[in-house]
UniProtKB/TrEMBL annotation:
PANTHER family: ACYL-COENZYME A THIOESTERASE 6, ACYL-COENZYME A THIOESTERASE-RELATED
Short name of one Pfam family: BAAT_C
Record-given protein name: BAAT/Acyl-CoA thioester hydrolase C-terminal domain-containing protein
BP terms from Gene Ontology: acyl-CoA metabolic process; fatty acid metabolic process
GO molecular function: fatty acyl-CoA hydrolase activity
Domain BAAT/Acyl-CoA thioester hydrolase C-terminal: 19-48, 72-145
SUPFAM superfamilies: alpha/beta-Hydrolases (SSF53474)
Amino acid sequence: MALAYYGHKDLPEALNKLDLEYFEKAVTLLRTHPKVKGPDIGILSISKDMVIPPTKYDESKAVDTGYGFLDAAQWLRDHGKENFEVIRYHKAGHFLEVPYMPHCPITFHPAIGAVVAFGGEPQAHAEAQVDLWKRVPEFFKKHLNNDHSDFKAML
């Protein structure tokens, strides 16, 4: 499920404040969906502006770092959390979309309202996309304490 949280229909135009109750409603909706094994829900964010570790939903885990993923990782450790991973992809760009999406090193960013450089080299970015998206289901399987013995990554 992709969840818009600003700039769409009746949502705020700009991201000035993160409304965690909005995300809690989404988690509640997912927990009642017949295709969700639950009870735990994994959350994944692909931007380093907001780090939400892909692990059990807990509103205290949303970290507005402002300084990057290493600060977020330290914040999590400082709060007794160890069920996260930091993976660095040198030479990859800022956003690691699903595999085989075209590399876009420069684009208009609606949250900022300006053109931004996401950087990265095309080959390294593509390799990082494939590697990361193979890791995500395995991470969820390991940390969500759900029985996914029949689950296999689709990549």
